[in-house]
Amino acid sequence: MHCAGISPVEAVAEAGPETWRRTLAVNVASAAELVRLTLPALRRSRGHVIFVNASPRMTGVPPWSAFVGSKAALRELADSLREEEAAHGIRVTTVYPAATATDLLGRSGAPSGARTIPSSASGRSRWRR
Predict the structure, then answer these.
(1) SS3 track for 38-65
(2) Nearest of 52, 57, 49 to residue 81 by alpha carbon
(3) DSSP state of 125
(4) pLDDT per residue over 22-58, tens digit each?
């Protein structure tokens, strides 16, 4: 299971190259590397990879540009891995838990008491009270 992640709260206009590099490294590249290193054992055991993603992954959430972008990339990583490793019997699941009321969420501009819920059958999420 991969559930590491960072959540910088910066708009595109404010997020410099280091914010993007660090966010993509922690939220996406580390997941890919963990899977790469464990693939031999996963293949032998016909294992199961579980990625923990984030509810806002399907839609922009200002000012969380780097975070949301990295979560979209994590979704695509999971989808690619699922196709690549199906012949080896490896299952790949992505879990999308709802937002949790934290200080970081409060500072992000989300409404007080906000949570994310699916707003359509496509799985798109938006802030709701």
Answers:
(1) HHHHHHHHCCEEEEECCHHHHCCCCCEH
(2) 49
(3) E
(4) 999 999 999 999 999 999 999 999 999 999 988 654 6
**How many C-beta atoms lie closer than 10 Å to residue 52's C-beta?**
16
- Please answer whether residues 111 and 129 qualify as being in contact, where contact means their C-beta atoms are separated by less than 8 angstroms: yes
What is the SS3 string spanning 87-122? HHCCEEEEECCCCCCCHHHHHCCCCCCCEEEECCCC
pTM recorded for the entire structure: 0.76
For residue range 70-120, list pLDDT tens digits in order.
989 999 999 999 999 999 999 999 998 876 666 656 655 554 444 443 333
Q: What is the number of residues in the chain?
A: 129
d(CA 24, CA 5): 9
Cβ atoms within 10 Å of 5's Cβ, excluding its own: 18
Q: Return the residue matching tokens 């914010």.
A: 19
Structure tokens at 51: 């990625």
